[in-house]
Amino acid sequence: MATAIELPTRQRLGRRISTALLLRPKLLLALLLVPPLLWLGVVYLGSMFALLIQSFFSIDEFTGMIQRTLTLRTYAELLRPAHLDIILRTAAMAASVTLAAAAIAFPIAYFMARYATGRAKAVFYLAVMLPLWSSYLVRVYAWKLILAKEGIITWTAAELGVEGWLEALLSIPVIGGTALSVSHVGTFTVFVYIWLPFMILPIQAALERVPQSIIEASADLGAPPHRTFRNVILPLAFPGVVAGSIFTFSLTLGDYIIPQIIGSSRLFLGQVVFVQQGTAGNIPLAAAFCVVPIVVMSIYLTVAKRLGAFDAL
Amino acid sequence: MRSDPGRRKAPRALTAAAIGGLLFLHLPIALILLYAFSTEEASYEFPPPGLTLRWFAVAWGRQDIWDAIALSLRVAASSTLIAMLLGSLAAAAMSRTRFFGRESISLLIILPIALPGILTGISLRSAFNLGGIPFSTWTIILGHATFCVVMVYNNVVARFRRMPSSWIEASMDLGADGFQTFRHVVLPNIATALLVGGMLAFALSFDEVIVTTFTAGQQSTLPIWMLTELVRPRQRPVTNVVAVFVIAVTFAPLVLAHWLTRRAEGAGGGGLR
């Protein structure tokens, strides 16, 4: 007997599964979401949670053993002057890096958004993107060459006859040092250099969105260019600056590689976390230190959201 | 003219500041290229006393560098594959449907790159300690895949949003089942986005050092090798050569990724017209 055309069994099974899934969109959604959520939930959140729990443990000062009873003692230790110093130093560095990056990034972003066209714009865009994706360590390494005592900066200063300025800069207490590569000035320069693209891109995106008509309207109403810039363009670009600052601030807070390679012996937060969990073996204190950037960034993000920075990302 | 505030010509100070900023971003890299040819062994003397090709040969003969490169490639390839799978699954789920908790899931995907890498690293390390898991290539991959997912996700979700849902409906109306629609309609459309996301994930993993220091144990990926050389320099000229190699390796896929995205965007715009 001739029946309807039989599909091969395998294909029929596939069709049945596909129909079953299409009729139950929630099941399909669950099947799509389960693998990524399982991974991120277990591997990432799970281990993060395990770490944070340990910040409520404490370490026995005599035996060096971790006591697994919940306590706030480790958090109280964060308030010791030496530890507080480290937190404030790191926050001050993050803030100054953010300000400097904004100052350098703004003209680049402004030029990209309002004057560069066609080919020049593509070149600018690629030039800003490339460092973002090229090797972080290699870019830090470049500064080890530049800031070395026998390096190009000392040489240039000597050629120009301004060694005095360099020495004056290095003799400033706290931020100076015996050479640029072992001073806070050096650390600061490298931070600004490494995170600069993160600041340029959001500012540029915000500036791109400022409609030409608003600027024309401001001019038609009699505002001179600098007034238009200050009262129209700058307020509209500000969310972009805040968006960029999220990156520069957060990345500086957590970085422990840069101050380790270029910097003085005064430690930053990331380095302390590294030392405490490693050689010192004080996981609770390391975990408590980890909470600091999380809290700081949560506050920062809440404020940034108020300022409309998320729309500028 | 007041009504056109200099669209064509930028103020000289602005142009100078913009070009100065770009030079600040790129001159340091150029300097490494120069140093790779320096004859000076013990210091970072500028200007280099002489130029030589010797260090390229020395670096070529170093087995530890080859091992580090091989490990980095293995880790990057595996984490990219995992990230491509998980990232596109998440993108498919998030782009089409609205559901309760959607915002928190998108936050969860972004979190591994939004929070400082040191947090991911130390969390994973303490979790491995608690669970008694010994360090291996897989512990490195576990960490890398976690933050690579977002790279693939971002690219693929953007492409999904641009793809009209009517295409999928049309395919179904014409009698294709879900799998056929996926293979002949969805996959060709997201292919370039998936590729670009994969390349970015690969580049990210190949270069990652912060999380890796916590999850590698005694193993040495190329960035870890670089880091040890940076903290305690042993043979500076060899490090210079490796740095040049890394610049060359990262440069190529980036330009390619940029070109692919631009081409895909151009084609998409033309198709919608």
Any key phrases for this structure?
heterodimer; A: 313 residues; mainly alpha; two-stranded antiparallel sheet; 2 strands; 1% strand; globular; B: 273 residues; MetI-like fold; 2 domains; disordered N terminus
Strand order of the largest sheet of chain A: 1-2
- How many angstroms separate the termini of chain B? 36 Å
Can you tell me the CATH topology of the largest domain in chain B? MetI-like fold
Oligomer: heterodimer
As a percent range, the share of helical residues of chain A equals over 70%
What is the mean predicted local confidence, pLDDT of chain B?
A: 84
Note the gap between the termini of chain A.
66 Å
Query: Which CATH class of the largest domain in chain B applies here?
Result: Mainly Alpha
What does this structure look like?
The complex is a heterodimer of chains A (313) and B (273). Helix content of chain A is 73%, strand content 1%. Chain A is mainly alpha-helical and 313 residues long. Chain A is globular, with a radius of gyration of 27 Å. The N and C termini of chain A lie far apart (66 Å). By secondary structure, chain B is an all-alpha fold. Chain B folds into 2 domains: 11-52, no CATH class; 61-271, MetI-like (MetI-like fold), CATH 1.10.3720.10. Helices cover 77% and strands 0% of the residues of chain B. Chain B has 11 helices and no strands. In chain B, helix 3 (63-96) packs across helix 8. Mean pLDDT of chain B is 84; it is low at 1-6 and 267-273. The chains are: A mainly alpha (313), B mainly alpha (273). Chains A and B meet through helix 1, helix 2, helix 4, helix 5 and helix 6 of A and helix 1, helix 3, helix 4, helix 5 and helix 6 of B.
List the helices and strands and how they pair.
The complex is a heterodimer of chains A (313) and B (273).
Chain A: H1 9-23, H2 25-54, E1 58-59, E2 66-67, H3 73-77, H4 81-114, H5 118-133, H6 136-147, H7 152-160, H8 163-170, H9 184-208, H10 212-220, H11 225-254, H12 258-261, H13 269-277, H14 283-306
Antiparallel strand pairs in A: 1-2
Helix pairs in contact in A: 2-14, 4-9, 4-11, 5-9, 9-11, 10-11, 11-14, 13-14
Chain B: H1 12-35, H2 54-60, H3 63-96, H4 102-114, H5 117-131, H6 137-162, H7 165-173, H8 178-207, H9 210-215, H10 222-231, H11 236-272
Helix pairs in contact in B: 1-11, 2-11, 3-6, 3-8, 3-10, 4-6, 6-8, 7-8, 8-11
